[in-house]
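Exercise 7.
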Amino acid sequence: MADRGQYPARIGAADVAELEERTRGLRARDYRGGGGTCRGAAIAAAAAGERLLGATASPRVRRRLLVALADLHNLAAWTCFDTGLDGPAVRHWTRAEELAASADSPELVANIHYRVGRLHLHRGDPVAALGCFGQGLVAARRAGSPHATAILRANQAWALAGRGDRAAALRRLGQAHEAFAACRPADAPAWARFFDETDLTAINGMVHTELARTVDPVHAATAIPALTSAVAGYPGDMHRSRTLSLIALTANHLVDNDFAEAAAVGERALELAAGVDSARVADRLRPVGELAGRYRGDARARELAGRIAAFAAAA
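Solution. The predicted structure, written as tokens, is:
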């Protein structure tokens, strides 16, 4: 790609391919080290990419550029969300949706709605999250994408579990598995390729983690093997996903009164968390620390609560 301030009057496929490659590299950094490792670079790349819109291009290249730039804004938004900057995240998602709609890319629109929903879910508003996931499903159906449908159904299940609606959560989780069985994850677009069998297993664990919290602690017995499998299944460069699964697994061992395992898993979660620049990691750890603090009669739980409190205070 030409220097940021001097793009050519006309661009071709090679210019867009370079933008796509930059996004791939930034996305890998986000997965590996958290949004804080690449947020500035992603925002700068999105701003630079916007300048390409002023160049002339063939219709095919123009559409590819719109999709690539929408994907980059989608990633920039995610890194902002991951580092606690909700306002900038929403602005980047708004721009991403505009570009994706202009490119007539409903599958990318579906992914954007999924990610906005995750912001609401993280902030404790499952109703708003469900609204976003529902909008995403409309786009996923238009795209004819069972993979996008699986992502959205799984996250609907997570939100419903957070509301304590066990029947609806399990129904949506079943639909997610059905949609996933009908797709080929390896063929998914770059922005959705993270969602493979391991990630679906992790969300299965998160749904039961929430049900253990909102409905019945017995769900911890289902969450534990799912999360254990996900932790083992994530590839080596998915540090943040593995860390988040370990945090949830720690909570379930506490609910299950297995304080020795909770301490061991919690220690591993804290070790990995130290290498991930993500506000969400600290946000997820805090309630686990509070949960551990309720078991004051066990020295291992008390120590875990103290270690998490120290980590969260420094985050």
